[in-house]
What we know:
12 helices
Amino acid sequence: MRIFRRIFDFYINSSIHVGFSCYALVRMTQYMFHIPVSEPVASFAFFGTIVGYNFVKYDALARAKKVKMRKELKAIALFSFCCFLLVCYYFFLLEKITQITAIVFLSITLLYTLPFFPNRVNARNWAGVKIYIVALCWVGVTLGLPLLDAGTPIGLDFYLKCMQRFILVFVLVLIFEIIDLANDDPHLKTVPQQIGVKRTKIVGLSLLLPFYFLEFFKSNLNKNQLIINLILVLMIALFLIFANEKRSKYYTSFWAESVPIIWWLLLLLF
């Protein structure tokens, strides 16, 4: 059993799971906008998410704190480097406009992690900004890149989906912030730190309403999508309601991050 636990922990800690979540949302975008399946875009998002998340998570350990790397961290570093090579490979298979946009979101990720100005903290530590940067990057990578690469015209449906996707990620990050409340730096001024856990849950539950009803404004209303979105809203609501500081790391790092994957699988089943 120990070996399976170590494999599972590596799967979580190396950001493979969150990479699959990003991959699932790209596939969702391709389906919703009737885009032919493009493996380069989906794979670029998958491997890019792994590299980006691992860089953000472990940069402080490897660079700032100078902590001696354990075997697992060395394995994650090697794995991330291999993923980086694959990111480079798929990057050159993308359209020019998609490459430029991808570089923009890469720059935002670097700004989020590295201090670009002397005696200044990185964007990750800017009070109250973290949740918006994360949501913006997810919208750009999972919605913007597939549409740009396919040359799909931008219309009302795109803006509606941008709002939906932003709300989805925003609420999921709220769950993370509630779980991490005891460990987060007070200077981060996360939503739970500023308004408390109870009000954070109310905000999250309230945002699920526009997330669901925005679907009715689409040019082509799909009844199956309404059913799937209702299941998704109920599932996220339960995750949010039962979130607290005593939950294990798997509550968010596996279960909450599984929401986009489950959303995509429900779509395939329907």
